[in-house]
Amino acid sequence: MRCFAASGTAFALLCSLPSSAWAETDSRPAYDDPTLIIVTGRRSVAVAEAQAAATAGGAAVVGYGDYADKSLVSLRDALAYVPGVYLQPRYGQEVRISVRGSGLSRGYHMRGLTLLQDGVPINLADDNGDFQELEPIFFDHLEVYRGANALRFGSGTLGGAINGVTPNGMDARGLYARLDAGSFATARGLLSYGGASGALDYWAAASADTSDGDRDHAQRHALRVHGNLGVRVSDAVTTRFYLSANHIRQELPGALTLAMAESSPKTGSYTGDQQRDIDSLRFQNRTTVALGDARLDVGLFLNRKSLFHPIYQVVDQASNDRGAYARLDWASGPLALTVGGEARFGTVDSRRYVNLDGHRGALTFRADQTARTANLYAELRYKPAPALSLIVGGIYADGYRRQHQRYNAGPADVTARAAFSAFSPRFGVLYEPARDIQVYANYSRSAEFPGFIELAQVSRFVPVKAQRAWTAEIGSRGRLGPARWDVSFYRADLRGEMLQYTVNADIPAATFNAGKTRHQGIEAALSLDLAPWLRLRQVYQYNDFRFRNDVQFGANRLPVAPRHVYRADVRLGSDALHIAPNIEWVPQGAFADYANTVRTRGYVLLGLTAGARIGANLELFLDARNLTGRKAVGDISAAITANPAAAIFYPTERNAIFTGMRMRF
């Protein structure tokens, strides 16, 4: 988000942070060039990159121009080349999203990450969420902070935070339109307009999309609206109001057996007419006050959401979440301090019905759910020398969950409660041996509290505890000649990881705490600008997730995520005309179960994007996927013990071609 504080001191503080050695700012076009079709907030991106560069750990900023040639179905299309973010499509806008193995056992919705739009969390008050509410086609840029590096967003989880930042009227003036169409009767459109007048600026956008999907019973359509209004109250005070609305309809094709996923990936399930329909409305305000050497950000937000979700039963929920946040950034000489806090309060009217072919039958369950998630955090940065920063901080998190069960086929009028708290310290060092080269290390704790999906497995809450971990990380980011890199090595030792688990013969497999597990790996990105017309971009991820002396599973590997994932593209040409072949390579597939009895096969997917500028106001683009029609397993719903006949496998995307245009007036 653009920093509106008028104080020259506050802005100078951000710009004086170490240069973002890993960012591609110098190789990107000048954002304020009036001939560009894609116009993004150059100052906003520069501030975001400076903040990421001051982080002693894995962090990245992705501009809209980095993924504009993709048909933007999901977050995977925007974040495919961000190191450390594991994203695999399942169908439509449904993707598996995980950072450092966060939420691996969750085959639906999302857990272990904080998702934000313009700095405000999308997650519900119990920390569960639906990433479909983040629309990448709206964003000016995205900020990705892996693990405990996401402290500034009030996140203390294993995975970290992803923040999508929308444009404002100062950065994106005039009318902008984008149209996409392609395989599976897919059509998509975006229309936005921004401007400024005196002390006011404004930006609004609407997007609509429809598709039959690349599988049977995977049809989707959505309508989304987002806008913001900024007011400069004085030279020191600005405020901005945001409004977002989502209307999302998605049929669920279900999982397949291993043989079907590898031979008949188009197959989908019509049983129960399963769907996930979301309607949400979000309102938020953010006010910035310049206070000499400090800047204060305060805000309020209100999220209303309804979920109609026919699966084994019809899940019907209406939720209301509200909250507030504040953050103070101060710097003087070699010292800099960030102090903040956030609180989310939510209620859910949760009901379930017999699924009569996608419609409500008899009521089987009704409960009132109440949740709170709050935190206080602080980070102190000290520079004993111009090239060296020492960092210490911590976050205290508090959670509360309550469910009053008003109706059930079994016992009724049951009330269950659970409370959690944790303090997670963080220590880091950041060294810049030369301009545009950084080396960093950190050691941090993380904590993740269970939500209603984990707790409310029976009438009374099951005793699922908080998941905790200590993570060590070392890495480097930089730029030297034609090369830009961002590499992190991490090891996280977890206690009580929330996994699908067998507690004893009397309790079925569901989410419980494991003993000791370890997540370790490599997150690497390397880009080479070999010539003005030739760029190689690549990202590699190594995932080594396993049990540690587990009574049931020994030292088995955790399922779902393969050990190696590699993506690359080669961009040939200029903005006037370019083509970029790409590859995704998984040398060996992942295990499907905790017992390590079934493993999927590896695969190679080939694709291509291209773009051309036609005059001053029109650009064309092409996005071709899985050119060879490779059939393989892309994602898995983890099982305790699997067999190839189990319907837990999701195929990779099928061959598809999308094309479109971008126009600015």
Note down, in words, how this protein is organized.
The protein is mainly β and 665 residues long. The strands form five sheets. It has a 22-stranded antiparallel barrel. The protein starts with 7 loop residues before the first helix and ends with a strand. It has helices at residues 8-15, 42-53, 75-79, 258-263, 452-455; strands spanning 59-63, 85-91, 94-99, 114-117, 120-121, 141-146, 160-165, 174-182, 186-197, 200-211, 220-232, 237-251, 275-291, 294-310, 314-332, 335-356, 359-385, 388-408, 414-434, 437-448, 467-480, 483-495, 498-501, 510-513, 516-531, 534-547, 564-573, 577-586, 603-614, 618-625, 633-636, 649-651, 656-664. The chain is 5% helix and 56% strand. The longest helix has 12 residues, at 42-53.
Residue share in β-strands = over 45%
- Note the gap between the termini: 24 Å
Main sheet makeup: 22 strands, antiparallel, barrel
Structural class: mainly beta
Shape: globular
Cα Rg: 24 Å
How many H/I helical runs? 5
Tally the beta strands.
33
Q: What is the overall pLDDT average? A: 90
Ranges where pLDDT stays below 50 over 5 or more residues in a row are 1-36
Helix content: under 10%
Q: What's the multimeric state?
A: single chain
